[in-house]
């Protein structure tokens, strides 16, 4: 193993020891496969977490899954309207959502496809990346898409203190509001991970937590065919579809970009209307304060 990797691992171990995971914490995605996001790496440590952190998180989550305390279904029941994974099932609509943006390699290409098909989507933006690539965030807004908050640097909310969690949201909010003209209402927790008390705080402060019911699993650098199959698998009216338009240096999202026109045509052929999250939930882009 290279010296650098060993140093990284030591840092991660030190971090884990300094901030042990509370066994009584309530993982939200206990039975969800999407939390094994182990592959994202980084351009800089400030922008997103390191691959080592992702891997160690995935391992921890496996342990937590066994303890399975609170599922997304339970959170939806407990906080109706404040924690959602889908929209109304009686309307033939679907919402495309793209996480880990903006990324100069892929976000513009995804925006190009959406513009070509005149489809509006929802982008969950990382504050650290928005600060670095503000023009792409302005473009999302200008082209009619909704911008949501995906934390400042892809932190695992369920492992944060209340203060750290609030700061992840507020810091991103402060970067996004001047770019898009509103304080984003919708928050997507990295990995879909969030504790009950954190949902409660979000609800109290006018935010809505938006996870998904269709996972393209595209973060694994899948070929377009696999992305399309994954989307088709659990699609139903009201579905919120998770995809990525940005990621770490080792992630190849060309499969996502290639699949997108096919997915849009498929959805339209099946009679789906493609809407943004606020359209699906009958709400506005910005937060009630
Ligand atoms: Zn993410």
UniProtKB/TrEMBL annotation:
It comes from Paenibacillus cellulosilyticus. GO terms for molecular function: hydrolase activity, acting on carbon-nitrogen (but not peptide) bonds; metal ion binding. The keyword Transmembrane helix does not apply. Residues 1-25 form the signal peptide. One of its GO terms (biological process) is carbohydrate metabolic process. The lineage of its organism: Bacteria, Bacillati, Bacillota, Bacilli, Bacillales. Keywords: Hydrolase, Metal-binding, Signal. GO terms for cellular component: membrane. Residues 92-275 form the NodB homology domain. This is Peptidoglycan/xylan/chitin deacetylase (PgdA/CDA1 family). CDD domains: CE4_NodB_like_6s_7s. It comes from the Bacteria. The keyword Ribosomal protein does not apply.
